[in-house]
Description:
The chain is an alpha+beta fold.
Amino acid sequence: xxxxxxxxxxxxxxxxxxxxxxxxxxxxxxxxxxxxxxxxxxxxxxxxxxxxxxxxxxxxxxxxxxxxxxxxxxxxxxxxxxxxxxxxxxxxxxxxxxxxxxxxxxxxxxxxxxxxxxxxxxxxxxxxxxxxxxxxxxxxxxxxxxxxxxxxxxxxxxxxxxxxxxxxxxxxxxxxxxxxxxxxxxxxxxxxxxxxxxxxxxxxxxxxxxxxxxxxxxxxxxxxxx
Length: 226
């Protein structure tokens, strides 16, 4: 027990965040004769929790702040950024409570069941990966990449298959009735940004999203003038 406490004192001194990778763990315990044995003891004691192979958080007794599932999402598979349903819920576009953290990844689709929940990764082309992203800085330290609202919606629409959407009317029906996004909220989105993202993706369907936003905004303007 004393050995575990000593290891944790060293580890907490070296690692400021709550989420860290295997290399960080080894570096923090590098002065130990057998750092991997020390890691095994910490895992068995629950002082450190393995999220996926190579990704960890501190156990409850040693946390200085709540861990961030968004930071973990960036670490588990990458390069990636938080997007799709989880981001749309964050922005208040969709009413559903989304339990899984959904991300876009420059690679193959992946899915991870972990001790802290489900993480889902959907592929995006490398040419479009960096468009419409920003870094969220945590007040307690650290940060993560997340899609802006227009990019998150673009990723969601692009990822859906078999929609049979042929025109602007079809897209409006899908956005409002299937995804249940408030038309007024849609009208407030940046149609130019969606169109720019559509061009990078080379997606006709996303151009329809941009056109749908413009039509809804125009219709709302007409109603306000009546």
